[in-house]
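In this supplementary section we document a worked example of the pipeline. Step one takes a protein sequence of length 138 as its only input; no multiple sequence alignment statistics are reported here. Step two produces a three-dimensional model, which step three serialises into structure tokens for compact storage. The input and output of this example are shown verbatim.
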Amino acid sequence: MRHTIKKLHLTFGVLLTLFACGDVVEVTPELREAADGYLTLLDRGQNEEVWHQSAIIFKESVTLDAWLKQVEQLKKRLGKAKTRMQRDAIGQQDPANHPPGEYVMMNFETGFENDEGLETLVLFRQDQKWLLAGYFLK
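The serialised model returned by step three reads:
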């Protein structure tokens, strides 16, 4: 029987509901490279580097210590990622109650050693680069 994974809301929990009214977007090579880079760092346990390479809005919403504790607890319980398939990408421009700008939410169906889950990356365009603005796992 499949174990239930509790939601991990590290930043911008409201963004998930906000994207319900977004549009499906094409995953450009730039978006793919950014997402793959963050997921690779997470898979390697380089969680501090993820935080340092993230958007300012991410760093303002979660301290480095809180980020490290939350991710390490989750990964310890789930184990290493074994499979990952992108499900969709949803874009949103200037969402209400958030810093203005371009956001893309990318969902991945991920199989871990001990369970399965839906990983969500929220990427934010800052200084002409796609940077992490949120990471969720349920």
